[in-house]
Every structure is written in structure tokens, then in C-alpha cells.
User: Fold this.
Amino acid sequence: MAAGPGMAATDTADWPRETAVLSSAPNVPPPTARKSPAVVKVDLEVRELEGQLADGVTYTFWTFGGTVPGPMIRVREGDVVEFTLHNHPLNKLPHNIDLHAVTGPGGGAASSFTAPGHSSTFSFKALNRGFYVYHCATAPVGMHIANGMYGCILVEPEEGLPPVDREYYLVQSEFYTAGRYGEAGHQPFSMEKALDERPDYVVFNGSVGALVGDNAITANVGETVRLYVGNGGPNLVSSFHVIGEIFDTVHVEGGDLLNHNVQTTLIPAGGSAIVEFKVEAPGTLVLVDHSIFRTFNKGSLGMLKVEGPEDLVIYSGKLRDDIYQPEGQATVTTTPAPKPERELTKAERMEAGKILYNQTCFACHQANGQGLPGVFPPLAQSDYLMSDAARAIDIVISGLQGEIEVNHVKYNQVMTPQNLSDEDIANVLTFVMNSWGNEHEMISPDEVEKVREDIKARGGSGDIGGH
Assistant:
């Protein structure tokens, strides 16, 4: 590359040469472990392909490296990066790449504009250390990003980063679909929703459930964890938070500024952060965007599963569960709702049950009965629910704690006992067991009463409000 007027060319002829190790999320490439710069070759292929956005929902993603987000790239401050972008011949559109780590026009976009079946190469020197987003910048730029074309590149400082026990890579982003959240089938991109900034999905690592269940990231008690967190956008600012942890150190916006003892950190669209913390209690830590409806209604939820011994001084768990009676208040008693003058029909029970479901159940199990992947199990077409009506009644009365398997997926959360009358339970279960593709006979108050008696017979409390 020729030097411009007044500028000296960098002679890299004698520099070591290596090929970058690229890692798909949530994995992180190994540290460079070099004391001097090198010429680093990066090859990245663009693929347009169909994939899963949520359970039963597919989408045509435009990707770097065949994954959303694109793979994480790791180089060292001072390295010269020889970057080649390949556009697969089966793709329909031209693409390019804008790396925020590049000092130069368009971040490399102008030099990497590539038609299907072609490759483009350019080079840049990694002048500034930090954690940077990259994305496609081909018009319409927002659409290319919204379809999945983003990822991150880490430029390590010359001295490297302090060692930690675990490193993980995750990127938040939004998807704008013609159908509403959870609507089954193949969903096309909606430009109207994107312009209005009304995403149907806000997710980590490209899909609902990408970081839950068997896909959860892991650590052991006493280990240090570093999360490289990007925000592909294209529109929303992330309020990144890990429930049950405090960030010991935050590299604000992926740069040199360090903040400590942080609960939640803002990550702008097209920006990043690096967060570090030590895990000191076992259990499942939940990764969220604390703009919280996005987490529980649009998908921005991940999990960090921590194993190891408990330290009851750091965290005791529940020690007692007592009745709270404010001083001077009259004793509160709960009486069952009176029985209706006549037996309700199945249709009437379903209508009454729908109202009750929307008051007490939908927050966890969602209005469409789909639940939240890896957190709250689905009720729609649930083998666990539909196989045993008496067990379902028992769970509503007594609550449920511990691992269960629903439709071959394991869940481990707590459902508290519900303070409902026999009529209410009959109504809500009749609704649930006959909605969203479920089919079952009507649940009667007599069936509920029998289960209550069975609970009492085995030593439990079948009373309303009992524990």
C-alpha cells in the first residue's frame, strides 16, 4: 500500500504473520499472547440463510460467518489486519463491512463492497485498543443490520488484558417482523416497524433462548467472569444487567474508562461494554436488558449457571416463611367464592377462566400460553400439563418447585401456591387446557375438591391460601 503525501508507510515485511482465530458466540478467541505486533489475516464470509428466531418461528438472516452475531475477532493494538470479505455466490445481494475499530473512510465499507460470488480485501492498522462493533453498511444500512449483520472485534491493549477464569461474548439486537412476537411460521422483515422502532424481538445472540437451558453459559463459584457485550441495535439502547451480580469492573463503552461496583450499564446501539465480576454463590444468574418488558416479553434473557458450594453468609436462601400481620390490623381470613346457583357450562367456565388467566397467569406464561424459553414452561400443547389433570390441580393449589421436563425441555423455577377457590381453579384450568391447541374435557369444582382432600391426606394444606 503506497503512503500518501507527508505520511510514512508501515513496513511490515519482517513482521510475523498469523491467521486470526474467529469464535462464534458465546465463545471468545484466545488471547493473542504476543509482545509485538503482527500482520493478522481475517477471512469472513457473508451468508444469507434461513434460521430459527424463536420456537416455531423462522427468519431469513443475513450473516457474517453464518451466525448471528458474526464471529468475534481478536487482535492486538498495533497489529495490521489484512481483511478479506467473501460474498457467497448463492447470496442475492451485495454486502460490505464497517468495522468501528478502523481508522479510515467508512470503517472499511467503501473498500469492502462485494457482489455475490466475489471477494474484497483491504488492510488497516489497529491503532486504538478497545472492544468494537462491526456491521454491514450497504444501503439500506438499517435493514442489513436488522437482518443480523453485526459482530464485534477486540483490539487488545499492548500489555494484554488481566487474566480471568471465563470469557464470553454476547450481542444484543432487535428483529422487526411482520408477525407479532411468537407468531409461528416464516416471518419477513417489517420496514414499517423498524422505522417506528417497534421491535417484536429483542434478543441476545440472534434468537430467543440462545443463552438459556442447555445453551446457558457456565462458571464455578469463586471464578472471575468477563463478558464482552455488544449492541448491534439497530435502534435500541441496552440497559445491561445480571440479576444476582454486581459488576466489579465495567470498561465503559468498550474503552479505557473503568467504572466499579456497577449494577446496570448502558450500551448504545452500535456500541459495547466489557463487564467483569466474581461469582460467589451457586445458582442461575439471569442476564437481562433491564428495560424489563423486553426481557420477559420480547426475549432478551440469558443465563449464567454457577456451580459450587454454598456460602450461607454471602447468600442464605429463604430462612423462614411467616404470616405477616401488620400491627393493629384485623385478622385477614379468606373464604372461598360462593358456588354459582347452577353448574356452569364448559364455555362459561372457559370465559371465566380466561379473565382469571389474564389477571394472574399471563405474566409468566404469556398471553398465548408459550411461556418464556428456559424460564417459564409453555402451557400451549404442553405434554406435562395435559397428561395429568389431577397433577395440574395439585400444582395450582400447592405450588411447584424443582426440575420438571416439558416437551423434552427442562425447567427449574418456582410456582407459588395460588389463593383460588375450587370454582376459580376449575375455570382457569378449563380455559388453559382447552386453548392454544390444547383439548380436554371440562374441569369441575368437584375434581378440585377431591384433590384438596388428597393433599390434606398426605399431610399438606389443601386450604385456600395454605402452604
Observations:
- DSSP finds ten helices and 23 strands in the chain.
- The CA atoms of residues 362 and 369 lie 7 Å apart.
- The mean pLDDT is 91.
- The first helix runs from residue 109 to 112.
